[in-house]
Amino acid sequence: MLKIRKNEIQQYLFLLPVFIIVLVIFAYPYIRNLIYSFYDISFGGAESNYIGLKNYTYLLGSGFFWESLWKSLYWTFGNLVIQLIVPLFLAILLNVKMKGIHLARSLIMLPWIAPTVAVAVCMRWMLLPRIGIINAFLTSIGLMEKQIHFLGNNTTAMPALILLNSWKFLPFGTLMILAALQAIPLSVFEAAEVDGATGFQKFRFVTFPLLSSMIWFVGFLAFAWNFNTFDFIWLTTQGGPGTATQTLPVLIYRTAFKTFRLGEASAVTVFIGIFLIILGFFYFSYLTPKEKQ
Amino acid sequence: MAEINRTKNIITIFVIILVLALIIWPFVYIFISSFKPLKEIMSRASFLPVDPTLKNYQTLLFARTPVRDFPRFLFNSLYVSVFTALFTLIISSISGYGIARNRRLRAGLISKFLLFIYVFPTVVLLVPIYKLFTTMNLYDNLFGLIIIYTALVSPFCTWLLVSFLENIPRELEESAGIDGAGTFTTFTRIVIPLASPGLVTAGAYSFITAWGEYMFALILISSNLKKTGPLGLATFTAEQYIEWGPLLSGSILIMIPVFILFMPVSGYFIKGFTAGAVKE
User: Fold this and answer.
1) Which residues of B touch A25 (CB under 8 A)?
2) What domains does chain B contain, in order, with CATH numbers?
């Protein structure tokens, strides 16, 4: 009995390193954020006055906060739709046994592991009017009549960014859904075939239901990641033109490090934190499959 | 029937190659374009360079000024990434082992909690980390970046390693114990070598993440000497006149180490990455 006790304590000790990190780098700063959000803090922190809920009332009464929230939702759901639907087809396509398929699966991962900075910089160049290859291609096949400055235009900036970002994140969903596909035992398909199911029926009634928990998983990760994207947007448009692509993370950065209103930025982060904690709670309590005993 | 299968196979191969080409072409195009002289980069696009040159790489690597010292930026990134990977492996293998060997922890909230940290909105940490690191003398300090990157990746790497570590048969450890090995010896001599595919995955993941990270480098690094590759490259785009030539070659130089590191371990990587997720 004592032996077991000792073992268990030892096992909890093993967890210490990661817990210290989570406490110091995630939990503590987040609580500090909560405190900052009640203060008026200028950059450098020389003076900070307690102002109660003023940061919050200011934000809620301002148009730009709601505009950023709307931009964030537009960005997140736009990305989510593409990053769930396309990988489903890619995964089914790649779920075959043939020579070189492993190489194909590795190559398809490249956009995901490529550093965001490099992708963003190169995409900016490729999207330029007159110079960029994307404009040249789209006009030459007759899809567009004249060249468009995609990232410098209020209506096109957001959709263009969504497409580019989705391109970068397609591999992740593909990889995950492919793994789930491969975990489905072949006998399930054989049984469906014996019962006379067509290809589409097999997908609709066998594959898809068995994939649903993985699709929720990918959806959850993709939602959270996209909602938090800062670097890709900042490196391509800096939230512009104007505020056309200013999502909440960009707003936080701009408020804190460009206009130096740290307290106000903290108030925005509190919103984001609460929003994602609720989302995570729902995901983990309702959508994860119950443990099989 | 065999005939139908063959045409079906050929169509599948064709579609796979087409999709791959669609996904990969930007890298190929950027690579080729990085050998174009400025005149071609700034004019109507042609796919292949008419007059190929190494000038874009030369300006980046040899025309060094204190403000634009790209080799130095790359070296800083290398330094930060190597230590991030090292610290992450130490931390996450210890913690992952603790979880894998305790059924109650494994089935319970802990592994979900680690996964939740993985999707934690890091952007909410900008202000408090900035303030915390300035008071702790970690502002404009590469060691500060190593700390924050290790913190960002180690919860996920722990989660990743659990699925590798729990597959190691307990009997091996027990027999080592009978032979007189203590917990530490068992861990370093038996567990770690057997978990090496997982360690490779976790190590590559943390290296790649640290190598490409931009947001924290942006708020925590200010002096030119300490800029990382991504931060250095990004500052080139903020200049009045954007020089696209060195930007393209710089992008290639930032991507190449990641690809070289990734391709040999991609099999492990894909397996390791998905093993936990399929179970979850």
Assistant:
1) 125, 129, 147-148, 151-152
2) 67-279 (1.10.3720.10)
